[in-house]
Amino acid sequence: MEKGLFCITTMASLHIAVLLTIGVITILVVRIIYVLFRSSKPLHSKSPRSLSTLIVLGSGGHTAEMLNLLYVLQTERFKPRYYIAAATDNMSLQKAHVFEDSLLGKEAFEEVEGAEFLQIYRSREVGQSYITSVGTTLIAIAHALWLLIKIRPQVILCNGPGTCIPLCVIAFLFKILGIRWSSIFYVESIARVRKLSLSGLLLYKLHMADQLFVQWPQLKEKYPRAHYVGRLM
Length: 233
Prior knowledge:
Helices cover about 50% and strands about 15% of the residues. It is α/β, with parallel strands linked by helices. Strands 3-2-1-4-5-6-7 form a seven-stranded parallel sheet, sandwiched between helices. Helix 4 (about 130-150) packs across helix 5 (about 165-175).
């Protein structure tokens, strides 16, 4: 008798566990579909308040292109601004300092919120072996998690450096979990004429970027969900 009751209880617990698992998976799938649907829509902010913005910089021309983009944006709509670069990339942050200094006169009669300059661990250094890069990638993801919890940006701007991937992954997971909605805007480098960079390809294929912009018409033809904006430089 006791053995029969034990079997019934075990089966009931198993059924409950299965139903709970199915329920959680269903909720996650529905949430992912919602995130992908909403991410495909343009960002419309009717509020007059500015948007806290995380700007990802990178070596090899990425920083120059990003600062050129910022020059044509309504910077008063995107503040406070948080600039982030790899831990070994001090030059990019120096350029960002110079850019912010150039805005002081432009925003002299406005309420100015100071910019912050941050660094993040690289997922992989140039020439680093793929085996050791597993550990550094985990460290970079943990660091990205801490930074996004601290900053809680409404907008993320990036244009190719690999340092943007951990940040975008964490931001996308935050969307799915309903923790924070950060709109991700990716502008592919002008140097990419025939195909997307690895960073751009990952964000495109995984649907993590809310909007992905390209500067060459042939890229738009190859990647239909991208937005062709012409040359920004």
